[in-house]
Design brief:
About 30% of the residues lie in helices and about 20% in strands. It is α/β, with parallel strands linked by helices. The chain folds into 4 domains: about 30-100, RNA polymerase II/Efflux pump adaptor protein, barrel-sandwich hybrid domain (OB fold (Dihydrolipoamide Acetyltransferase, E2P), Beta Barrel), CATH 2.40.50.100; about 125-280, NADH-ubiquinone oxidoreductase 51kDa subunit (Rossmann fold, 3-Layer(aba) Sandwich), CATH 3.40.50; about 290-360, Ubiquitin-like (UB roll), CATH 3.10.20; about 375-444, no CATH class. The strands form 4 sheets. Strands 1-14-13-17-15-16 form a 6-stranded mixed β-sheet. The radius of gyration is 21 Å and the shape is globular.
């Protein structure tokens, strides 16, 4: 039975034009810039200094609290500076700058191609290993993984859900992982199951990935308690609450977390990296980045060291085509246009999308025609037209009453608006102010 969430959602064109491009490794060279804050929570504190020699996989910055993540060097070389570096939005953040020299790795990292099936660590040891590895969610939010896996007192996890929907247009890194590292993913699922003490895991995959579904299903007989769930193609099915609804029919109430309905959700990329951390002792120092665009003569899925300049990735594609209007970090729906395309990649960088000039401009804004299309497509049962108006009028208390904080910023409303109103821009403003008010109330 093909499942999906019921309320809202849209069906943008797939544009998975890089789906048949096998994963290629980008060799490190030149300079890498590794941000100390590339996760939700407190920035990490550097434990290296200018002039230090480091190896790939070496700890270079330590987490400063429970909601934080360690940072490791993705390369070997010399630390040339710890300085402010502009990210893709032009925001300057502290980073460790390393000049690449050779490719030496920490000796305890298993770099062989052998697949390690036996899980020797206990649940507690797995959580410690994941925390030590600097693991964060690779589905976009970059939430420290050990925090999500630490079930709060009084709550109980009943099942694990692996987000393999990859519903965002253009992105194919998760798809290639499922095809090329199927068994490692299945072992990663078993590791996560053991960590949270559950016996059942669901892997939700949209039906526009039949090869992935077939490969995963072929291994379920070897790995107990893993069920592959085909999902109808629908955006934003990769959202946690939408995926839980689609897979289990359970609904996460407003203000609650997935664990409140017994679920822990992890992305495919995170699951593979968990396998590497626990079974291979490899910290999170690289990830797969889809580099794609209709104007490019080739499409690629690249295994990239964290901190690699995006300009280097674009060089492998033959440079930026002349008709490019925007360089986007991520997909068309939730990605953000880069004001600094020379920025370094981060742990959560999933794609670099080059949009042609003719597709890069918003349509002319006209008056709202009260069609209610934005309401019908909102997967969170919100009223985007109203939230937009409240934010515009700075009525943030009313925004809170109308649940602006529940917006997942999927952009379905703006995508569907026939008047081309930038609904999400206004809602994001209102949501920011609402969250600020809520924080002030808890700290006062």
């Amino acid at each position: 039975m093909i499942k999906t969430f019921k309320h809202g959602g849209i069906h943008p064109a797939d544009n998975k034009i890089s789906a048949e491009s096998a994963i290629e490794t980008v060799a490190p060279e030149g300079i890498v810039q590794i941000f100390l804050s590339q996760h939700i929570g407190a920035p990490a504190t550097p434990v290296v200094a200018k002039g230090d020699r480091v190896k790939a996989g070496q700890l270079i910055a330590k987490s400063t609290g429970f909601v934080s993540a360690n940072i490791h060097s993705s390369v070997s070389g010399t630390v040339t500076n710890i300085d402010l570096v502009a990210d893709h939005l032009g925001i300057k953040k502290e980073a460790v700058v390393i000049k690449v020299e050779n490719d030496e790795w920490q000796e305890d990292i298993d770099r062989s191609d052998s697949i390690v099936k036996e899980i020797k660590l206990s649940a507690e040891e797995i959580l410690k290993k994941i925390a030590a590895s600097g693991m964060v969610g690779l589905g976009g939010a970059a939430f420290p993984s050990h925090v999500k896996l630490s079930v709060p007192p009084g709550k109980k996890a009943e099942y694990l859900i692996i987000n393999a929907a990859e519903c965002e247009p253009y992105l194919t890194s998760d798809y290639r992982l499922m095809l090329e590292h199927t068994e490692e993913l299945m072992i990663g699922v078993q590791i996560l199951k053991k960590a949270i003490g559950v016996t059942v895991a669901y892997v939700g995959v949209e039906i526009n990935k039949p090869k992935a579904i077939e490969k995963l299903n072929a291994l379920t007989s070897e790995y107990e308690g893993i069920r592959i769930v085909p999902l109808r193609k629908k955006y934003p099915q990769g959202g946690e609450k939408q995926l839980i609804k689609a897979v289990t029919s359970r609904e996460v109430p407003s203000g609650c977390l997935p664990v409140d309905v017994g679920a822990i959700v992890h992305n495919v990329g995170t699951t593979f990296s968990v396998y590497e951390a626990v079974q291979k002792n490899k910290p999170l120092i690289d990830n797969i980045v889809t580099v794609t665009g209709k104007s490019l003569s080739v499409q690629r899925n690249l295994l990239v060291r964290v901190g690699t300049p995006v300009s280097k990735l674009l060089e492998t594609m033959g440079g930026i085509p002349e008709n490019t209007g925007k360089v986007i970090f991520g997909g068309t729906m939730m990605g953000k246009a880069a004001s600094n395309p020379d920025a370094p990649t981060q742990k959560s960088t999933s794609a670099i999308l080059l949009m042609p000039e003719m597709e890069s401009h918003r349509g002319k804004v006209s008056a709202c025609i009260r069609c209610s299309r934005c309401v019908s497509v909102c997967p969170m049962n919100l009223e985007p037209y109203l939230l937009k108006r409240l934010a515009e009028c700075k009525m943030f208390e009313e925004s809170e009453k109308n649940s602006a904080h529940d917006c997942i910023e999927c952009g379905s409303c703006a995508y569907s608006c026939p008047a081309n109103i930038p609904l999400l821009d206004y809602i994001r403003l209102g949501k920011t102010e609402v969250l600020k008010m809520k924080r002030n109330r808890t700290t006062s």
